[in-house]
């Protein structure tokens, strides 16, 4: 259990998530994320010079990724600090935040900025030499689509892992459709009263179209209207499968940032120190080969055990749910109501830019926790390679 690492209340932001091949499709994710973080710090009147370390989370290659951490810190305005890169598929933000918290806990760092940014659109194509290939043919890989479609260990696409869990657990197409509709309704709650909830953490992104013309992206792109009748008309992605394109997530682009620091500095940076969130514990797991959706459960149990609490003591639950089966399986195993968590949004609805996905969900969870007067937040989610990661934070 950690005791010294805090996230200042509203010491974080998340960009809107742009649909695949949408407004962010041609933007270098590190440049865009760093500039957005710099703009946010300026709006908050926080000097980048207060930070002694930056941890960058990114999973999709971009030019100069080799220099990612220190380059991002310099672009953000913190020119004199080093930084590291963490890439752990869909668990990236969870691990980035926990590594920052561990550094603060041990006294290695005092004030860490965590920046998570990715662009699934226009993913890079990597080519390696293959001297032994016929005619010297190269080995090539699409960084995004090839990862979705082929786990080199389990030998299956990600959708197959969800269907494997659904089949073994007896999760039906009807249950997946019902959950997709419920998650859409929960996301709609974040748009109520002129997006009052979202505006507490969402920060607009400026895109330069030319030297003289810019646009601001202020809201999520790619949110699909969802009705029960519309879901029922969709065909399964895989023959006889439980999931359609309405009950799985979609690739997206975006970024987010969080400050992780000491209790004293958090109070100085916070908009309300009584609402600062302490990072408590972390959990990780690996499910059996080809059953990625199961990994959310052991990761959550480890995080809860290390926090010294039970599920009954958790106030808010957020999950990365690329497939409806993830949440249904978690709810059954943990004996909770599948309709009562992931309030105000989830990746099933607003998309999955990979590195920042869990970061946004944790930010939303903190804001919901504030509305409920404090308590424990549990985040858990799966990641490539049948793995999972979880985080517990506390307010109060």
Number of strands: 15
CATH first level of the largest domain: which class? Alpha Beta
- Strand content bin: 15-25%
End-to-end CA span: 16 Å
Averaged pLDDT = 97
Weakly predicted, low-confidence segments: none
Radius of gyration: 20 Å
CATH level-two architecture of the largest domain: 3-Layer(aba) Sandwich
**Tally of individual domains:** 2
Description:
The structure is a single chain. This protein has 396 residues and is α+β, with helices and mostly antiparallel strands. It is 34% helix and 22% strand. The chain has 13 helices and 15 strands. The strands form four sheets. Strands 2, 3, 4, 5, 6 and 11 form a six-stranded mixed β-sheet that branches. A five-stranded mixed β-sheet has the order 1-12-15-14-13. A two-stranded antiparallel sheet has the order 7-8. β9 and β10 form a beta hairpin. It is globular. The model has no long low-confidence stretch (mean pLDDT 97).
